[in-house]
């Protein structure tokens, strides 16, 4: 950077540059060969704006570097401290993030926005009570929508979904997608399916490609007893079609060694490998996997600093924290690691990365354990289940289903669990039923069945434990619902959530546990059995409602899996009829579990390993000749050479990039206009990639350009084209959002106006070629490709862009 001679010298002397380090014969500035080092002094606003752009574009490491440069010169600037703290949080540096965010608050204590930022960090770090203490007083100072969302999340996670719902409903936000997404999550936790459904549908009308909202919507649907299995399958199928788009049809080859019998690299993607139900259910078989046959790579989407996570880390050849990686970056990482089989342990639960699976991150992809239903993705090759959860005579879902002979559940009991105690029936002389679990599963159907059991045993009390039951509002909902079924309020005992040891100790207050419906419990059922408490489960109409039977069959307690309410009542009465037998059962329960498959991981690991081996062999057999050779992708309109411009499927281990651009200054392989690609030989490339080029042509030029794309491809080659989606722009305009930012690009915020006409700053900088001269909808782009000779054309809409795929026929029959 050239320094103006009349500017203050960057060395900090207070003199003008021309009289200090710029004077004739003066020593050069230290580090003057690195121009960036002085921008913090001379152009702090411009440097801050660049850092913010990098930050918004997800380039966190580069943004951090720029903020650090500013901080070295402006150590008490509240905005720099605040943004640097947010970047640190996004990079997973929690302690540093909190120090920086607190420093920003200390530097400008009157600014509510900085306090709200610190509150948002506390929410992300699950320090919810501290977040509430910080954010709640800010409501009177005009806490913004983002702050209200974070406060509502903290309230919900602290067992106050009613209070959270009131915070959100006080705010009008018709077109604020984040508002409706948060409201949907809160209403799910409060068991308000109707409002949750309306909120999620509102979000998806604004952001139809939001995979996180889709997953929350689908998980909530599993709790909603109003939905039948065919409706659930349809919802999941719609998700898959929307999120996968054209990607499953793109023949991206893999560089993996095709040897059938070699040691396989097994990748596991999960947020829950720690002290979480999935952690306790996954540990037995992951510990038992044959390390000579499988090399374990874990992609952890959430950091859990607990002893259970340390056990998983000890099993892994590689443990990668990926919560800060974008979907593109995680996809590229998995492909770079040459994972052979990638296992999803989340399904549609929190922290999932299903969009990465949707784009085929590994040759074989498997869904297991974390979600008891179809993911909706065709790119998942196998869903591991069993015949109790997914009976062979019922539809299984989008993915092929493999049913393990001895059940899909295994359990690693917590090492510090208290010993089972005498049943309360003997201690207090009164039977006690109980339900411990996620309050969202305490639905109307379950309450009716529980009430029937309580009416059949009129002396019994009912112990309910859930985080949301810390709130009187939720206790009242349960009390009123059971009251309508004839159950008096004085029979109910409500317990709030607690730490794990206290939680396990609370099972000592229950003689018989009752399962939830239509979504059964899993981790809580295992805990109850380990604490010596029988569990009665009533089967539901969906896979999630048959998990209880699978667990009980595996544990050796088949009779406790009930087909109807009459069986449920009969089993409850039988268990309570002989208190001494109940006490003996409680004492011997752990021995019986040790003798069952539930605690044994070796057989499960062997059977799962065999399934994976067969899937791998099948994939190897299906690979075409020449799939391991180097392929060539013609990157038209490539611009300056930068990593990450090609989609991750164009793996550098498999693809050589041939760069095409009209500007010789970017040093392309071919200097050519996309209108004709004249210097590029015919039948030259296996693939062609064009990102936001075609819209810069006049309509009359488009057919010629697409025909040129067709000409340079080899027979069977494909073109992958992306450009603005005019339908998305039109929808935004109809919402009155012509100039409202729709998304953040590396160049800055993009509006509907930009989608139609061009990104204005590019044109204003003196580049008229960047003007948009034509536009497309999905249908018109597909027809244009067919007219140019492409076949098997697919076009999908994704995040305000169209993505089109077309193949050149093996034999061209055009005249």
From TrEMBL:
<keyword id="KW-0808">Transferase</keyword>
<dbReference type="Pfam" id="PF13844">
    <property type="entry name" value="Glyco_transf_41"/>
</dbReference>
<keyword id="KW-0677">Repeat</keyword>
<comment type="pathway">
    <text>Protein modification; protein glycosylation.</text>
</comment>
<keyword id="KW-0802">TPR repeat</keyword>
<keyword id="KW-0328">Glycosyltransferase</keyword>
<protein>
    <recommendedName>
        <fullName>protein O-GlcNAc transferase</fullName>
        <ecNumber>2.4.1.255</ecNumber>
    </recommendedName>
</protein>
<feature type="repeat" description="TPR">
    <location>
        <begin position="177"/>
        <end position="210"/>
    </location>
</feature>
<feature type="repeat" description="TPR">
    <location>
        <begin position="78"/>
        <end position="111"/>
    </location>
</feature>
<dbReference type="InterPro" id="IPR004027">
    <property type="entry name" value="SEC_C_motif"/>
</dbReference>
<dbReference type="Pfam" id="PF14559">
    <property type="entry name" value="TPR_19"/>
</dbReference>
<feature type="domain" description="Methyltransferase type 11">
    <location>
        <begin position="670"/>
        <end position="721"/>
    </location>
</feature>
<dbReference type="InterPro" id="IPR013216">
    <property type="entry name" value="Methyltransf_11"/>
</dbReference>
<dbReference type="InterPro" id="IPR029489">
    <property type="entry name" value="OGT/SEC/SPY_C"/>
</dbReference>
<feature type="domain" description="O-GlcNAc transferase C-terminal">
    <location>
        <begin position="251"/>
        <end position="391"/>
    </location>
</feature>
<dbReference type="GO" id="GO:0008757">
    <property type="term" value="F:S-adenosylmethionine-dependent methyltransferase activity"/>
</dbReference>
<comment type="similarity">
    <text>Belongs to the glycosyltransferase 41 family. O-GlcNAc transferase subfamily.</text>
</comment>
<dbReference type="Pfam" id="PF13176">
    <property type="entry name" value="TPR_7"/>
</dbReference>
<dbReference type="InterPro" id="IPR051939">
    <property type="entry name" value="Glycosyltr_41/O-GlcNAc_trsf"/>
</dbReference>
<dbReference type="Pfam" id="PF02810">
    <property type="entry name" value="SEC-C"/>
</dbReference>
<dbReference type="Pfam" id="PF08241">
    <property type="entry name" value="Methyltransf_11"/>
</dbReference>
<dbReference type="GO" id="GO:0097363">
    <property type="term" value="F:protein O-acetylglucosaminyltransferase activity"/>
</dbReference>
<dbReference type="InterPro" id="IPR029063">
    <property type="entry name" value="SAM-dependent_MTases_sf"/>
</dbReference>
<feature type="domain" description="O-GlcNAc transferase C-terminal">
    <location>
        <begin position="436"/>
        <end position="608"/>
    </location>
</feature>
<dbReference type="InterPro" id="IPR011990">
    <property type="entry name" value="TPR-like_helical_dom_sf"/>
</dbReference>
<dbReference type="InterPro" id="IPR019734">
    <property type="entry name" value="TPR_rpt"/>
</dbReference>
């Amino acid at each position: 950077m050239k320094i103006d001679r009349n500017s203050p010298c960057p060395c900090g002397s207070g003199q003008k540059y021309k009289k200090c380090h710029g004077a004739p014969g003066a020593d050069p500035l230290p580090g003057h060969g690195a121009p960036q080092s002085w921008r913090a002094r001379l152009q702090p606003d411009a440097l801050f704006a660049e850092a913010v752009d990098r930050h918004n574009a997800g380039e966190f490491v580069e943004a951090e570097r720029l903020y650090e440069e500013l901080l070295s010169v402006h150590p008490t600037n509240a905005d720099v401290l605040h943004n640097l703290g947010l970047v640190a949080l996004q990079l997973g540096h929690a302690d540093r993030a909190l120090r920086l965010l607190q420093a920003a608050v200390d530097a400008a204590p009157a600014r509510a926005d900085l306090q709200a930022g610190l509150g948002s960090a506390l929410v992300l770090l699950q320090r919810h009570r501290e977040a509430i203490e910080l954010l709640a007083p800010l409501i009177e100072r005009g806490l913004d929508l983002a702050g209200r969302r974070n406060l509502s999340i903290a309230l919900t996670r602290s067992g106050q979904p009613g209070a959270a719902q009131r915070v959100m409903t006080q705010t009008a936000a018709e077109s604020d997608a984040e508002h409706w997404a948060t409201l949907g999550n809160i209403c799910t936790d409060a068991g308000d399916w109707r409002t949750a459904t309306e909120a999620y549908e509102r979000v998806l009308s604004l952001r139809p490609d939001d995979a996180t909202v889709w997953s929350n919507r689908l998980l909530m649907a599993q709790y909603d007893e109003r939905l039948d299995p065919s409706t659930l399958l349809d919802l999941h199928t719609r998700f898959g079609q929307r999120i996968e788009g054209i990607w499953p049809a793109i023949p991206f080859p893999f560089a993996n060694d095709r040897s059938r019998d070699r040691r396989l690299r097994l990748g596991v993607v999960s947020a829950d490998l720690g002290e979480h139900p999935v952690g306790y259910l996954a540990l037995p078989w992951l510990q038992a996997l044959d390390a000579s046959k499988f090399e374990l790579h874990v992609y952890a989407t959430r950091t859990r600093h607990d002893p259970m996570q340390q056990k998983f880390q000890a099993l892994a050849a590689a443990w990668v924290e990926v919560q800060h990686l974008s979907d593109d970056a995680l996809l590229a990482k998995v492909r770079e690691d040459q994972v052979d089989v990638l296992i999803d342990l989340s399904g549609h639960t929190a922290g999932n990365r299903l969009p990465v699976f949707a784009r085929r991150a590994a040759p074989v992809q498997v869904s297991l354990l974390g979600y008891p239903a179809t993911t909706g993705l065709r790119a998942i090759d196998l869903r591991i289940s069993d015949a109790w959860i997914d009976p062979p005579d019922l539809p299984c879902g989008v993915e092929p289903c493999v049913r393990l002979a001895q059940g899909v559940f295994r359990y690693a009991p917590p090492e510090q669990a208290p010993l089972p105690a005498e049943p309360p029936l003997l201690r207090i002389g009164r039977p006690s039923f109980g339900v411990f679990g996620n309050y969202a599963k305490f639905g109307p159907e379950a309450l009716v069945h529980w009430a029937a059991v309580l009416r059949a045993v009129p002396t019994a009390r009912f112990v309910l434990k859930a985080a949301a039951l810390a709130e009187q509002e939720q206790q009242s909902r349960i009390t009123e619902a059971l009251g309508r079924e004839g159950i008096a309020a004085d029979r109910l005992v409500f317990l709030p959530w607690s730490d794990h040891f206290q939680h396990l100790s609370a099972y000592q207050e229950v003689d018989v546990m009752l399962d939830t419906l239509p979504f059964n419990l899993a981790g809580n059922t295992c805990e109850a059995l380990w604490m010596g408490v029988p569990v009665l489960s009533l089967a539901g109409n969906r896979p999630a409602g048959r998990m209880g039977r699978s667990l009980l069959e595996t544990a050796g307690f088949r009779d406790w899996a009930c087909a109807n309410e009459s069986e449920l009542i009969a089993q409850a009465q039988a268990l309570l009829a002989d208190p001494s037998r109940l006490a003996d059962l409680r004492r011997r329960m752990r021995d019986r579990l040790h003798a069952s498959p539930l605690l044994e991981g070796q057989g499960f690991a062997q059977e799962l390993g065999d399934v994976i081996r067969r899937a791998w062999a099948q994939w190897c057999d299906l690979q075409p000749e020449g799939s391991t050779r180097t392929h060539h992708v013609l990157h038209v309109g490539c611009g300056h050479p930068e990593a990450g411009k090609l989609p991750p499927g164009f793996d550098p281990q498999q693809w050589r990039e041939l760069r095409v651009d009209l500007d010789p200054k970017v040093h392309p392989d071919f200097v050519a206009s996309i209108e004709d690609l004249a210097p590029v030989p015919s039948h030259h490339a296996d693939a062609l990639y064009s990102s936001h080029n075609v819209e810069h042509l006049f309509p009359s030029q488009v057919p010629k350009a697409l025909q040129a794309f067709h000409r340079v491809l080899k027979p069977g080659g494909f073109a992958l084209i992306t450009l603005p989606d005019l339908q998305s722009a039109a929808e935004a305009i109809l919402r009155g959002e012509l100039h409202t930012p729709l998304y953040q690009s590396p160049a800055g915020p993009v509006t509907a106006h930009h989608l139609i006409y061009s990104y204005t700053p590019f044109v204003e900088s003196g580049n008229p070629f960047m003007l948009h001269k034509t536009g497309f909808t999905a249908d018109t782009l597909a027809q244009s490709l067919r007219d140019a000779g492409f076949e098997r054309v697919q076009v999908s809409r994704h995040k305000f862009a169209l993505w089109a795929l077309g193949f050149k026929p093996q034999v061209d029959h055009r005249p």
